[in-house]
Known about the structure:
The structure holds two protein chains of two kinds. Chain A is mainly α. Chain A has helices at 2-16, 24-34, 41-66, 70-88, 94-118, 121-138, 142-162, 169-185, 187-191, 195-219, 231-253, 258-272, 279-294, 297-317, 322-349. Chain B has helices spanning 3-18, 24-33, 40-71, 76-96, 101-126, 133-149, 153-173, 180-203, 212-235, 240-263, 267-287, 291-321. In chain B, helix 4 packs antiparallel against helix 5 (101-126). Chain B is globular and about 75 Å long. The interface between A and B is large, with 89 and 84 residues.
Amino acid sequence: MQNNNLEAFLENIKEQQPDFEHDRESIRNDTLAASTIYSNLGIKVLSVIGGFLGTLFFMGFIAAAIFDSAIGSIIFGSIFIILAIILSKTSKSVLADTSLLSLYIIGMVILGVGLERKTGDNSIAGTLFLISILALWFSRGFVMQFISALIANGSLFSFLIINEALNLYHVYFAYAVLVFIVFTHNEAEIIASGEKINRLYSPLRSAYLFSLIAVLAFGSLDFGSLKLEYKWISSLISIAAIMLIITYILNSLGVQKASVKIYIYLLSVLIFLPVVFAPAILGSLLIILISYHYGHRTGFWAGTLAFIYFVSRYYYDLEFTLLVKSEIMLASGALFLLAFFILKPHLRRHEN
Amino acid sequence: MNFNVKNFTRLLIHSVSRHSNWKPVLIKHTLKNTGVYANAAEWKTFIYYALITLGLAFSVAGIIFFFAFNWAHLHKFVKLGIVQTILLSFTLLAVFVKSSITVKNILLMAASITVGALFAVFGQIYQTGANAYDFFLGWTVFIALWAFISAFPPLWLLLLVLINTTFMLFTEQVTTSLNFEAVNTILFAFNSLSILVFEWLYATAKIEELPGWFTRCIALAAVMFGTIAICAGIHSNFLPGGLISLLMAIPLYYIAIHRSLKNKDVFYLCIIPLSIQVILASVLLKISFDPGMYLVITLLFLGGITLQISQIISLSKQWHAE
Lengths: 352, 322
């Protein structure tokens, strides 16, 4: 069944690109691997639970045996990490992936604890960053590369926190948003530029997505002594990004009329105005729009959940009485419903 | 076009691109044509649902906040009156509205939840205490009849959750003659019995459908209680509760696995071996609390889950091949 579709698919490409050459065997192997029960939810959950329980008890063992010695921690941590990277190249099953992931994370933790006794925070962050980049490059498999990318992004961000350079948050925010957009938008170019990068695409994209959500979450928290100022900078970046995405979407849908475009831009700005001090809401909206347009399910739901959370946070933190808040909400609700009824005929007409 | 199909198509596109010299321009073209990227129709759907959802959500939230603001100043009869009116509205709507049975059931579900709200408000006004088991008991009793007559699994689930909660709070707040294992054993027994009752009702055509998610939720709860009871029993040298759970678990687990194999459904195969591994880990911990034992347990889990998953995968392949 799959083979006929695959052949037709490849034929189609050949027609459009006369010099198309491909390795049919490898492609078939990939698709076979993808369509196994690997994606069964029960197995995924089991693997996660198994990995978690295994990690838990292993940490208990290591804690008692090794934690006293800093050098021992560093050595064992490094060994675990290297082992995990090497073995990941040959791992064939979900559970092997999870176990190796546990090994990898435990290795990182132990290494981190060992380093903490010997050097300062900056060095630790730097080391973890370098190691995670190496792991990202040399390992195989979605999960390890995903986690490595997350650790890399996290270490970068931790430099900000360690050195109390919180105003650079906005720089990091811009970086996170930019990379996410560029990476998602240029999917075709990136996956065509080499096998290694092609394999890295999925984990990296997911990692950038979740890193962005983490950055948003951080921005909306209050760390007491670490206050985040100039929130509107992040908001502006988010708005610019959303405008960019809307442009991409409109281009992709073939919308030509300038009047329609201007209409939509103005409408968007109107919607953004009330929440200009909440970059988290705008950021999660960006994620939703991107994920929906480029067809990423996890991104879409993660973005939606984040959006719901940040909007709730926003209203919770607003310093008005409940009465005023209720009035704001009813007004917003009325506006959305109004927009709904106005746009309804346009939306219906094309659905058939 | 749903996300699942998009995912699979995307995997294919990535795979082909990985092993060929496919040009990026054409890849992008394909991503659009095969529907991985959203088209105009999908965006219209998005805006449609986004607007109505946001509109309703904000309106409802606004109303709730309005009530929250004024709540403290309302007279107690007004408070009760409001909730009772809502309850009456839902009930009357459920009976008289000319819609499908599903809509009526959803209204009945809303009414059942409002019953809880009514008792909650009552408890708040007269300060009977938040966790009072009789709040849950009252709620359970008053929606029991509705749950029985409606053929609506979510409502059944609500009733079962309430029964479990009532029992747990009852043992906490009123009687202390039942120890921890006994409570869990009884919950294990009750939930397992519920599954068997529902299956019997379905088999004898007394109810029309028995959704998978429903039995799985109950099964999950039952296995959880059973595992807790047995583990607790292991640690306290097997007071009656733990032993009874163990004796119940053996036939029940056997039946469940057998059912899984017969129906070609992996669910029980996932949770029951996991439960057994947790129990074994408890046994090991009982033998020794040494750090060395932690290593053994680590291997137990990693090895056990490996074995379990590989078996499930090979069974799945077998079933899918048929």
